[in-house]
Amino acid sequence: MISPADRARPRATCRACGGTVVQFLDLGRQPLSDRFLTEPEIPQEYFFQLAVGLCETCTMVQLMQEVPRERMFHEDYPYYSSGSAVMQKHFADTARQLLETEAGGPDPFVVEIGCNDGVMLRTVHEAGVRHLGFEPSGKVAEAARAKGLRVRGDFFEESTAREVRASDGPADVIFAANTICHIPYLDSILRGVDALLGPDGVFVFEDPYLGDILAKTSFDQIYDEHFFLFSARSVQALAASFGFELVDVDRLAVHGGEVRYTLARAGARRPAGRVAALIAEEDAGGVATLARLDQFAAQVGRIRDDLRALLERLAAEGKRVVAYGATAKSATVANFCGIGPDLVSRVYDTTPAKQGRLTPGTHIPVHAADEFPTDPPDYALLFAWNHADEIMAKEQAFRQAGGAWILYVPHVHVRD
């Protein structure tokens, strides 16, 4: 029986299957997560309502409101995958694995959706394998081309995929990392994969994993660019509706917990045992149930209250607090928790395109990470918590001088 409270929940139409999406969390008014501003641009800043829901039919977790893709992925998109040594190694290893297992034919063809600055395709190129990257964000696409890579400056969708099939033939591997979850129009993506992929080819993509987000209460993985939060069960349902089958899953530690999904044409391969194992684990944990998602929403509220209280106490004590990592996901935390320059004086980041600008929504000044050791604060709020080991190893002098890190995943705590 549906309770009156459940009947009152906002609803939307599922972008994966057309079912009904029921809201379980509202993170409030949010800006574009990767839109770092100059002072004159503040009056024109774009905002939307960031809420997330569960499809009652296919269990796909997704945003309730879509942000137009052109607002997010454009000429000045500031994220470069090569900025992290950990991610460079991850993608080089991924490329080598795909080349060894899936691209061993006489003339293999590897396509990447959202190739960014070419951090994965570079290894494919160096192996002498035919390749093509799709990257609609102008400057990062140019960075990939500067490495000698073949890049098409378009969005991947059914029409562009058919054009590539006509000119280049079928793909042995279509790969995407931290990209498919960004795309609301999954129908066109899967039809494009169907058009471009060879009969024995695979579609491999890795994205933040709903199970890890719930386990770690990493609610900052929810922002405008992450339209979907995938689980093995929802990806299995998605694949089946387009003539594909989920044949493998691989748990990854990167970006706070991801899963690499491998799809093949239905019946082409026998699914690995770990597909059923992961779905059974999800079912046992209630990953795709409103009860578990409501519990997650309550935990998110506690993190907001605890983090805000800690920062206000430190401000009252006269402690100097900065943040580290002007990440896209930090926009969710800062805006949901009301963290502005009054509580965090600046954010340090390694990305030149963000430096000298203001964070989305909360307008905290962004400074070069090289400046962090020269003026150490009392506390540093680690927005880039998924790179904690790499950052803390780099900034050891901060802790040795008595500084302490503030983290909020899986709960608010101080690491000194």
UniProtKB/TrEMBL annotation:
It comes from Micromonospora carbonacea. Residues 14-73 form the Methyltransferase putative zinc binding domain. It comes from the Bacteria. PANTHER family: BLL5978 PROTEIN, TRANS-ACONITATE 2-METHYLTRANSFERASE-RELATED. Gene3D superfamilies: 6.10.250.3100, Methyltransferase, zinc-binding domain, NAD(P)-binding Rossmann-like Domain, Vaccinia Virus protein VP39. Pfam families: Methyltransf_13, Methyltransf_14, Methyltransf_23. Transmembrane segments: none annotated. Residues 254-410 form the C-methyltransferase domain. This is Methylation protein EvaC.
